[in-house]
Amino acid sequence: MKWKLVADSGATISPDLFAGTDVAFELVPLMINIGTQVYVDDANLDMATFVKDMQDSKEASSTACPSPQAYANAFEGAENVICFTLSSGLSGSYNSAQLGRNMALEENPLANIYIFDCLSAGTENDLLIAKGLELVESGLDFDQVVASLKDYHQKTDVVFILESVDNLVKAGRVNRLVGGMIGLLGIRLIGVRTPEGKIEIGTKSKGSKRAVKATVEEMLKHGYQGGKVAISHSDNPEVVEAVSALLREHYPQAQIEVVDFNGLCTFYAHYHGLIIGFEKA
C-alpha cells in the first residue's frame, strides 16, 4: 500500500469518502469515560445510549487519547502516512501519535510518517483530511502533500455553538465562572479557536436566532467568503438549517456539508451543539 491517512476521533469524516480511491483510511478512536462506563468512540458506538448516559450521569467524566501502540499499529502497511490529530492544545492525542510514529519507524525506517496537529476538532479536521485525500490523488509526492496541507491549514477555521460546556469546564478547557452562565436563560456560547489550538469565547448570545446571527458574523469576521463549510451537530437540524440559510444569503453558492457528531464531539460540545469548519480567504 502506498498511501494511508489516519485520524483520531476528533474528526467526524466518513470513511465512505475513501471508497473507490487507492488511499487507505483508518480511525484511531479515543475513549470516553462516564462514571465507570468506558465508551470506545468508533463506528460501533451506540450514540442514543451514549447521549442518555452522558446526560443522566452525575459522576466524573473524562476522555483518554489513543495509546502510542494503537497509533503505531495504524501506521503499518503503507509507504506514506499522514495522521491528523485533535489540537495539541486540547488533547494528548498529538503527543501519543508522535510516540507511535517513533515506534513505527523503528520497525520500518523507510516509511514516511507525518503527524499533523489540526489545532482544532470536528469539522475543521474533516476539511483537512478531505484536502489531504485530494492532494494525494493529484499525484504529489509526500513532502509536497505535507507542504500543501500546511498552506491550506492557513485558510481554514472553526466556530462552535454550545448550549452547555459542562464537560469542557470539568476538563479545564473553559473557565468555570463562564461555564456557569452558559445554558442559563437560553444563553449560547459562540466559541472560536486560537492560533495555538485552544478554545476561547467569541460572543455570547441569548436564544437560537441571535446565536445563529452571531455565528455567521463570527465566520465573516474570520474571513469566510463563500468557500466550503462542514457542519457537525448533535440532533439540532433546525439550527443547522438556519446557519446554512443565513450563509447562503451572503454566498448563494456556498458548499455546505452536514454530518452528525461522533462521541467525542458530543461529549465536549454537548447535546444540540454545532461545530462549523470553514474555508476562509
TrEMBL record:
SUPFAM superfamilies for this protein: DAK1/DegV-like
The organism's place on the tree of life at top rank: Bacteria
MF (Gene Ontology): lipid binding
A Pfam short name: DegV
InterPro entries recorded: DegV, DegV_C, DegV_domain_contain
Keyword annotations from UniProtKB, A to Z: Lipid-binding
Function field: May bind long-chain fatty acids, such as palmitate, and may play a role in lipid transport or fatty acid metabolism.
Protein name as catalogued: EDD domain protein, DegV family
Protein species of origin: Abiotrophia defectiva ATCC 49176
